[in-house]
Amino acid sequence: MANSETLKGADRPNPLLEMVRQLLFEDGQQFSEHALLKIAVARGLIPEEFGSCSKRLFQAHFVLFNALYHLQQELAAQALYLDIGLVQVSVRRFQPASGARELGSSRDEKLRRYYFDWSHFDQATVASVNEMLDDFWLRMGRQPVVEADRTRALDVMGLADPVSWSAVKQRYRRLAMQHHPDRGGDVDQLKQVNWAMTILEKSIQC
């Protein structure tokens, strides 16, 4: 059998594979994607600023899910199923006569092929990732960011293009403290600041 550190379609080791092996190896264990990424940061496996723009966030997500789908195949040999969900990742025992069906589900197979193909990681750009996110939000019944909203968000934050992600975060922290009700601030103003931060988080350039 080939070394599972070597990824299908590309001769590339995954820095997170050993980490997920150590965290998800027996029935009942579960973590959110956010928790797994935080652990990876704490162990120095991915940079702390992985969420500084949509492209970096996507690439961190991709590396993690590549590792998870490799682990899913490894755990199957132990009659364990790694359930990789949108919110939670968990390990559970295969149900009698259903294990092979679960691992071979069209959903899992389609996603496994996607995350095993490193070209999605290599070719990612801010524009391509934002387009993918916009498509996701449309399918979920939510609208993507439009330029008018971005312009208004910058105005709420007292910023102007070109603006860096670090500048946005710094301004957000200052305004959030200034308008927080516990500090005598205005609730409506705080809501506006939070809305602006959400818009800019989705549209900021790397």
From TrEMBL:
It comes from the Bacteria. InterPro entries: DnaJ-related_N, DnaJ_domain, J_dom_sf. PROSITE patterns: DNAJ_2 (PS50076). The keyword Kinase does not apply. The keyword Metal-binding does not apply. It holds the Pfam family DnaJ. Signal peptide: none annotated. Keywords: Chaperone. Residues 152-205 form the J domain. This is DNA-J related domain-containing protein. It comes from Gilvimarinus gilvus.
